[in-house]
Amino acid sequence: MLLPLLELRAARGRFVLMGTVVLLVAALVGTVSGFTTGLTDDTVSALRRLPATHVAFSPDAKTDQFARSLVDERTLRGWRGQDGLEAAPLGVSLTRGTSDRGAEVDMAAFGVEPGSFLDPGADRGAPLGTEPDGIVISQDLVDEGLRVGDTVVVDRLGIKLPVTGVTGHSAYGHVPVAYLPVDTWQRLRFSTPGAPAGPSAEVPRQYSAIALRADDGAGLTGTDRELGTRTVPLKDSYAAAPGYSGERITMTSIQAFLYVIGPLVVGSFFSVWTVQRQPELALLRALGASRRRLLGHTLLQAGVVVVAGTAAGGALAAGIGLLVGGAVPFSLPAATLLTALAAFALVGLAGTALTLRRVTRSDPMTMLGANR
Amino acid sequence: MSLELSDVTVALGSGDARTTVLDGVCARFSPGTVTALVGPSGSGKSTLLAVAGALLRPDDGQVLLDGRDLAALGDSQRARVRREHIGYMFQSGNLLSGLTAVEQLLAAASIAGRRPRRLRHRAEELLAAVGVGHRLTHRAEQLSGGERQRVALARALLLAPALLLVDEPTAAVDRSQAGTLTELIAASTHEHGCVTVVATHDPAVSEVADHRLDMAALTGAATGARRADQP
Ligand SMILES: Nc1ncnc2c1ncn2[C@@H]1O[C@H](COP(=O)(O)OP(=O)(O)O)[C@@H](O)[C@H]1O
Ligand SMILES: [Mg+2]
Question: Looking at the record's lineage, which domain of life comes first (chain B) (predicted)?
């Protein structure tokens, strides 16, 4: 134990420098994974919390399905007639409104049938269906200035939506979600600005999609063919959320780069360091240190640098999260951070493995060469 | 513990540069005696020490340390012999950079599997005995050439090895220091009963030694008749 620590101290300048580089890359890893989680959350948390297993769209919509797909009531009845599953209509559209207290908000309007399995209920206030056109807003809309008792007037359409309840965090495509009774949603989705609004107006009985709760996905393709729908597992429907795929590709590729940069940086540091201390390594071998032991020393030193640097980088990332978390979609749960950093530390150590051969190859006989 | 070389042949270098440095060398060294290995530069003194010190495996012949043939041992076994039984002061390049004089000794102790903390006092004593007691916390880079060699000698003596190999101990020190070092080597050889071989071209050293072994008499045709410990 003594020797590797003495060596660390002897070369502390270089090790601190190296540790700092590891720290910064690790902080970047942590920050990027915070943004990845945060952005994903902000894009699909509303879909993620749907208590459904599958979503059936109309077959014409290939991308951005929640906005493009339309299914009618006959299809809904068809799905409801199937054994082994539950079906509930779902409407999704983006809108904006102004509250009677002057708060201007963007909302992702999720139309659900009150009492169906998609009904989010209410953590505070009253659930859907207690008041005509009453809506339940997500916590995110509370943060934007709405509260129970407010009435939101949908811009240009003039539809009045009294806020009756509040449910937890829910966002779709970076827009906070409000849950509406599905017939209210249909009015909102299919009304024309300027046209008379109100319960009397005739609107199509259509939905964006049908949420399914199926025991297993086996029989769904047959029903799809029969009813003319395209059913995907709930997870696959995330890609239908605006921006989801692009964000994922961006963030994943940044992370991938960091996971390559980390081990390369650590590996090249140790390879340079090993070359520089060949005379010391030869002397240690001449004094009787085994190859195994020199390997162990190098690994221990790499471990100290990588683990300390990564831990400090993680702390920095968490600090950054605390600073910016309110302003941008950043979410860094401890488990996510720890997983990302543990993976980073592991690949960092793997980088050292690249240099291990050089450590063991040092020849004690060069001591004899140094003799003349 | 005794050391015996029999028919040791070593060729160094490769291709055109390959030269036979030791050719059928036979020599025996007894415990508790200092043997001075003398000969001009390039005569193979350092090479012979390296063979005896389990650093260099001879191309032919046996190196018997207490009856065990070092030449037949594998790489890791020779490393083990080195750390457990051999104290070696190399001709140069002895110290680990960045470490203090005391740490040089403690590092060696730790390689040999000994508790460095227990040996600190002994290490400081030895450093004082070789005349660098005032340089205990100087790092290798802060020591002069002579001081480094003396630290290396203290390190070789630290664990009271069975085989003590010293390469040119007086090359970088003045006369009076040379005397001190030679006496120290002789004293600890007699006290611990180790086999000691000192490579030197310094007559002052060979005068103090119990035996004197001339490289010129060792190399050449192998007869096996020359014995180091025969007067
Ligand atoms: N790697 C090598 N290749 C070729 N010759 C070598 C090599 N190493 C040492 N020698 C030769 O071996 C001879 C003995 O060297 P050495 O044992 O250091 O002598 P000494 O210690 O007596 O000065 C020298 O002539 C040297 O040139
Ligand atoms: Mg020499």
Answer: Bacteria
